[in-house]
Amino acid sequence: MAGTKTARGKLPDSAPLGPAIILVHPQLGENIGMCARAMLNCAVTELRLVKPRDGWPNDAATAAASGAVSILENAKLFETTTEAVADLEFILATTARERGMVKDIFTAEAGAKIIRQKNAGQTQKCGILFGPERTGLENDDVALADAILNIPLNPSFSSLNLAQAVLLTCYAWLSADNPFSAGEAVPSLGDTAPATKEEIENLMKHMEDELETGGFFRSPEQRPTILRNIRNFFFRSGMTAQDVRTMHGIFACMTGKRGRKKEG
Amino acid sequence: MAGTKTARGKLPDSAPLGPAIILVHPQLGENIGMCARAMLNCAVTELRLVKPRDGWPNDAATAAASGAVSILENAKLFETTTEAVADLEFILATTARERGMVKDIFTAEAGAKIIRQKNAGQTQKCGILFGPERTGLENDDVALADAILNIPLNPSFSSLNLAQAVLLTCYAWLSADNPFSAGEAVPSLGDTAPATKEEIENLMKHMEDELETGGFFRSPEQRPTILRNIRNFFFRSGMTAQDVRTMHGIFACMTGKRGRKKEG
Question: If you ran DSSP here, which 8-state letter would residue A118 be given?
Fold first, then answer.
């Protein structure tokens, strides 16, 4: 876990060990910075660089990291991909192209699950290789990997920006067991409680009385159907207690029990 | 193995209708271009722009799109968010901040499933709102949405680049399996179609006019907040077109434009 202390200081102690992100011969400093930002967004903190084209450190990287500077400061520099993966135990190589190599091919999600499993005991160290922007990984680099990671995209437009490939991969890792996700859907009620059915029913009564007075119901036969449809809407609409009070106010205003008075 | 199903060799001819991506007041052309690229990576093709800061078309956008020019050429331009969502029937607003508004909050994955369900019959049109780079969506824009979409990230570093937020959202949509093929339940709308946002907006106008006439707004300061809360309720309430017609009738009755006449 060397080198990750700074960035991890902000994360929960129980945050699991993410994969090392290994950028092989990255070209633009800006892209390295954006990769760092994407990593930290997903709580992945270990960056390794194999011979960045424009040297290291790189001001453009710092500028593009939007605050994820701890990732860049702790990045480890290597001369070759072989050295960069030397202490790791399971490697995935990202590539969009068929390499004619005998290797398992995982989606980002499937690859993320494997990494979670392998790291569950915090014993195994995993890494994900990303090639240079223009050409992608060389076959010699892919050969160092245990398996290939392929992000399934629109086949007629599948070329991803480097930082975006890193983002999707890291996000898949985070999502595989996301401690920050509250699950599928969480209703937010703001400061106010949901209305009780009684409150909604009282609102219905208020409305019904006013509609009666106003001659809304042309025929007695239509009346139950119309009221049922209106009730159906209000009861399924997810009104809060505040919404009910507001609607009372709106009805009162419209029927002249408030505001209109001053005209009389 | 989740995700492997989507590793299809190419998109089927019947590729489902993706959500409209709506960028509200985007600042940098470069970011708009990168959004277009991320969209096309995920086979999402409909881009809508609300008053881009630097005008439109924008050379920086074209340069950054890396070939996804068709998305930019077909982008639709709008003056207001209200106009941009007028023909849509289900809207998600992306925001990282708590808004104190009563709305469901979905993860990108849960939101993607909902959109798949709603679009399964190719009848309903969905959209996802993204705010300006620096500030995110304004509360008035969020109020137009049916629910909030929140991407669960490292809470101590959750600020995403605009194009990366679009990428994660569109990728979640691409990755979501069509629930129709899995035989999942779909919401039943009875005999009537969901209201369009324009229909609901017209209802809001009707009500606003009547409240103005009736002296509902005691102080000009309260007015925008009150209206936003009412709008928030109507826009998330799941109204059908029939519900909207009924509410128009209720308002007309209450304000004496119908029925009351016979009293005079």
Answer: H
Structure tokens at B73: 């050429």
Q: What is the ipTM of this complex?
A: 0.75
DSSP state of B159: P
CA distance A79 to chain B (A): 30
* CA atoms B82, B83, B85, B88: torsion sign: positive
| pLDDT per position as a tens digit, B102-158 | 778 888 888 998 888 887 766 668 999 999 998 999 988 998 888 899 898 998 898
Mutation test of the interface with chain A: which of B154, B162, B245, choosing the one with the most A Cβ atoms within 10 A? B154
> E strands, chain B, where?
20-24, 47-50, 76-78, 90-94, 102-106, 126-130, 147-149
Closest CA of chain A from B65, distance in Å: 10
Using the structure block, give the residue that is written with the tokens 């629910």: B147
B191 phi, psi to nearest 5 deg: -90, 0
Question: What's the rounded Cα separation, in Å, for the pair A242 and B101?
Answer: 12
Tokens of B109: 């994955």
pTM of the model: 0.77
Cβ(A238)–Cβ(B236) below 8 Å: yes
CA dist A26 → A11, A49, A165, B133 (Å) = 27, 8, 13, 26
